[in-house]
Design a protein that fits this description.
The protein has 434 residues and is mainly α. The protein contains 21 helices and no strands. Helix 2 packs antiparallel against helix 11 and helix 16 packs antiparallel against helix 21. The protein is globular, with a radius of gyration of 21 Å. The two termini are 33 Å apart.
Length: 434
């Protein structure tokens, strides 16, 4: 039986883990492209198109509230797909999540506005955003586990960083498409219908992603669980009963990175164009430059994590992220493009350092038989408490005080919370190995 298991695992293992990791990157980048274009549209056009009766600030708040709905759906996606990912396999859930995301995103691109169908427009917008949240909620756990579980033990952080690179990769793609579209269709043309093009383009990207994902073999670690018949009937129940501390610490460890990431990706676009009255092209360009730096920092930090210790790299990165938050908004508030780029580059670098190695960290917190459920739950709880409320809360803080200082304080606090959770995880893992 043991020989058969090893033989099946060897047959299921691809020639190179790099193929699996690369497929995880491509599919994840496409899913996050879908997710981010919604955030960009929420910051730029959704307010007047779907909430025209509101003031400019109230409309932006309402648009960002629909943005937050996706985060409420993400744990549901993580739980449902985590359940089936731990029972029938990682690969099938990745295909499912990509299909859900693509259908919902294309649906937003075809959606009539309030002027055409009245209150049904925001209702349908919220519904499609909820479906997006379910799709992306199941995406992260599966993509990360496929990459990490195919990887050699000494390179789990590096290969696990490929789906992590999908986040800035998707952001880069979303910014390029939005920047190009807004340039080709300036002014009212973009507001009237040009904004739909990035959403409709998703259908083509999803088709490419599906072809790539179908060609990848199942995770060898899940195959071993299946061969031994050790799947759990209710993986989530096992996680909540046996690993509640790991779930909460994982959520807290991700809180700072996710909060600051969505300020970087979504809120600053709205803040720069509406509060500082900078051009849309300026803010999209600075975000684009920052996303490129973020993309490069992730694999670099993950290689360091494999060589010098994952927890050490994450702790140092978290210290840097908390410190940099003191200067981000002062730099942005100058309205000087060069200084804004400096602020974005520093933020992006520390986001990459604190995000890349997190994939393998979360994977190793849970046994393979419940890993999809456990890692997804921790990650998605962190995303609700982090990015799920960050743009809305930041908008409200500025509207109340007319200064960015409370937003800075908010970002520093969440970064320090994550630093504390990472320190506790590091202590627990040291205790487990002694």
């Amino acid at each position: 039986m043991a020989a058969t298991t090893r033989q099946r695992s060897a047959q299921d293992r691809p020639i190179s883990p790099l193929k699996v990791a690369s497929a995880s990157f491509v599919g994840t980048a496409i899913e996050w492209y879908d997710y981010f274009i919604y955030g960009m549209a929420a910051g730029i056009v959704f307010g007047p198109l779907f909430f025209p009766a509101f003031s400019s600030t109230a409309g932006t708040l309402a648009a960002f509230a629909t943005f937050s709905i996706g985060f409420l759906a993400r744990p549901l996606g993580g739980v449902v797909m985590g359940h089936f990912g731990d029972k029938i396999g990682r690969k099938s859930m990745l295909v499912t999540s990509l299909l859900l995301m693509g259908i919902a995103t294309a649906g937003v691109g075809l959606l009539p506005t309030y002027e055409t169908i009245g209150v049904w427009a925001p209702i349908l917008l919220v519904t499609l955003r909820f479906v997006q949240g379910i799709g992306v909620g199941g995406e992260w756990g599966g993509a990360v586990l496929m990459a990490v579980e195919h990887a050699p033990p000494e390179k789990r952080s590096f290969y696990g960083s490929f789906p992590q690179m999908g986040v800035p990769g998707g952001l880069l793609l979303a910014n390029v498409v939005f920047l190009t579209t807004s340039g080709l269709f300036p002014g009212d043309a973009f507001t009237d219908w040009g904004w739909r093009i990035p959403f409709l383009l998703s259908a083509l990207l999803v088709a490419v992603g599906l072809i790539i994902r179908v060609s990848v073999s199942e995770s060898p670690e899940f195959t071993e669980v299946k061969d031994k018949g050790t799947e759990e009937r209710l993986p989530l129940v096992v996680v909540l009963r046996e690993h509640p501390r790991q779930v909460l610490l994982a959520a807290g460890a991700f809180l700072g990175n996710n909060t600051i990431g969505y300020i970087f990706m979504a809120y600053l676009l709205s803040y720069g164009t509406k509060t500082l009255e900078l051009s849309r092209a300026t803010m999209l360009t600075t975000t684009l430059i920052g996303a490129a730096a973020w993309l490069l920092a992730i694999p670099w930090a993950s290689r360091l994590a494999d060589r010098h210790g994952r927890e050490r790299v994450l702790l140092l990165g978290s210290v840097g992220l908390a410190a940099w938050m003191f200067v981000l908004f002062p730099l942005v508030d100058t309205a000087n493009m060069g200084l804004i780029i400096v602020g974005m580059l520093g933020t992006a670098f520390f986001l990459g350092v604190t995000y890349g190695p997190m994939a393998s960290l979360f994977s190793d917190l849970f046994a393979a038989r419940v890993r999809y459920s456990g890692a997804s739950l921790g990650y998605q709880i962190g995303s609700i408490l982090g990015g799920g409320i960050a743009p809305t809360l930041a908008t409200a803080l500025y509207a109340t005080t007319s200064t960015s200082t409370p937003v800075t304080a908010y970002l520093v606090v969440v970064a320090l919370i994550s630093l504390g959770c990472l320190a506790l995880i590091a202590r627990d893992q040291r205790a487990a190995t002694t």
